[in-house]
Amino acid sequence: MKKICMISFVLHFAAAGSGCASGNDKKAAEAAPAKVYMTRDISPAGMKAVYEALGRKAEGKKVAVKLSTGEPGGNNFLQPALIGDLVKSVKGTIVECNTAYGGAIKNISIGIASSAGKAWIHSAGKTEDTEKLWSSLPAQDDFLESMAEAAKAIAAHCGERILYISVMNNLSVDCDCDAHPEPPRMGDIGILASLDPVALDQACVDLVYASPDEGKVHLIERMESRHGIHTLEHAEAIGIGSRQYELVDLDK
Known about the structure:
The protein is of the alpha/beta class. It has one domain (4-249). The chain is 37% helix and 17% strand. The protein has an 8-stranded mixed sheet with strand order 5-4-1-2-6-7-3-8, with helices on both faces. It starts with a strand and ends with a strand. 42% of the residues are buried.
């Protein structure tokens, strides 16, 4: 059987690995909180450290590296100098689906969707026509739930052939689909990784709230005004993953 893997970068890096757990391993994993690994070292070495901590290799005939380069004029995308070594080490092929930003859930839903799929998610199933999209916007929570449900389709399809790495740097309040994003108002936090995208996103949210950086108020206001946490609430409810996690500090 061919092993097919996928790696994805945005403000986070998600890679598809190819491990296959036994029934006992799966039961044990389900009983314990998901592990989220963290380093404050935002460097190629830090990227390698969190990837190796996951214990799931991205390997096989095809390893896709999903990333977003944003719009012309933007500069908050992950730099080649940061991700290059890891991409080369897994013999990855970079895949760009135009735009996406945020955490793991958004990157594997809107981030992977086609233009029609992006319209379908944004409109919560009202239209696939991008020209009709902005006149067909649903209630905010409907959009967030639509995004989580699209992510579930990807997670279910990939199974154990995917992993997630989030780089918490350049923390602007704006989407990288904005050609002129607001400059980051808070400092970088680190690189996190998990096999559970819900746990990973929750850990990133928690670290923003826990940060001593006073500039965090801008990002928190944006998250709360958009009710962003509901994405994770719904993702957990439909079984993508759990918001409960164990944070493993690789710097200690």
